[in-house]
Amino acid sequence: MEPTITITDEVGTGGIVTVTPEGVQDVLTNWFAEAYADDPQIEACVDKVVAWAEAGRHAVNVRGVVEAATYLCINVEMHIPKPEPEPNYRDILSREVVERLTRARRDDALSETGGIPDVEVEDARLAYIQATQGRRAMREAYKAMQDATEGRDPARRELKRRFIDAWERAHAEWLERRERILLAVLLPGRVIEALRTGMGLTIEEWAADLNVSISTARDWESDRRPAPEGACADMWEMWAAWLSRQAAAVHIPEDLITENATQMPIIVPATTSMHDIRARLILLAGQKVTIDPGPEIQHDYTTEPGYNW
User: Fold this and answer.
1) pLDDT tens track for 76-126
2) Hey, what domains does the chain have and what are their CATH numbers?
3) 8 has which bridge partners?
4) Ranges of H-type helices in the chain
């Protein structure tokens, strides 16, 4: 929305007029044109006020407008409308709900966005787009809804299309992430904690060895955010080195540890505790352990996932 200018004629009969910046020229010309010949300064003052009005939000950079308005015996005020608050749907859906929608079938995800308590379907879908694709994608979807004109209920149809696009991207990422978890290339937090405590390291020592902050190390173990593949590879390398140092004491050949590390990971159920995972890691002598991330499609999408990513 563009600014408006209110012009008050303080001594003449012009009264009070509110116009757009482009209309200021016509108003002042109508009021003062006949006086230009008698007083050239009047025309210069009119030009100054017009320049100020047309500068809009940058009007502060136009000098001398106060003096010009005083000379003309007018008062000018610029009204700049406040921009509408930018939509933000960050806190509408929990991480668990976003994950559940991503793992569900597409049609189930669409259906569930219409059944979240106290959340309108449009808000749920915009919130999902923001959570999975970022705020910029959400803003684009929001604007596309407002601009949509074709077909029946165009805004909802456009939002549905944008939601499906976001779901397809997020679901593809989930399938790839799931495969990396099954291969123990990406590690759930309980496996990370089992590795750390299995080596007898404090969270401070662990963070220092991985060259990350303590808060980052805690986030990885609590699944607030996933550890990157490079960090996970470092963890397995540290674990193999620790096992090798203990090998002689427990009569395990080092060659066996090396060989076991090349085997496919053991996949344990999502309900397996950290203590049981730690015990398996030690007993398997180098073979990796990971947690079942769940099926490719979570058909029972009313059930919470085993852990959050």
Assistant:
1) 999 988 877 778 888 899 988 999 999 999 999 999 998 888 899 999 999
2) 4-79 (no CATH), 95-182 (no CATH), 189-291 (1.10.260.40)
3) 16, 75
4) 24-32, 40-54, 65-72, 95-103, 106-113, 121-133, 135-147, 154-182, 189-198, 203-210, 214-222, 229-250, 254-260, 274-283
